[in-house]
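Reviewer 2 asked us to include a model.

Predict the structure of this chain.
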Amino acid sequence: MKTTANPWSVPVAVDEIADGGLHRVIEAPEDVRAAIAKLGGLRDLPRLEGEFDLTRQGATVHVTGRVRARVGQTCVVSLEPIENEIDEPIDLRFAPSAAQAEIELAPEESVEPPEVYSEGVIDLGALATEFLVLGIDPYPRKPGAEFAVSKVEERGERPFAALAALKKRLGSS
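Predicted model (structure tokens):
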């Protein structure tokens, strides 16, 4: 089930989920974290872990849990390296097909249609990777970092004032 688009695969067969549910804690090894860091545009990824509870209702699976990570990024203001914590909650339903989900779930149970799993497997590694990427701040800032006003703007000078003056002089002659 491992694909090139997702470097982390932790498959769980739906048939493995007992009546009382299934609890899984996963932690990405160093080589997987390096590949995910590259995928997510991160400087590095020192920590990535997920904790999941899976429960079945017929062929439908309810997955809850959290994805936690420490991500290395670059401040968009100062260009200094920074690290941020990510803690993303997960609450999803999976079904073998959208039609099957509608049969098994009452309309008031779910506002969003469930995700579809294939070949009887839910991939917790792919799920953790997806929620990690969704939780990454696209414009990370070091605490206290602010954009500085340029000296040209402070003096009231306009960067194209010389061109405007030249244009005016050439147009007048």
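The longest strand covers residues 60-74. The CA atoms of residues 81 and 121 lie 38 Å apart. We have added this to the supplementary material.
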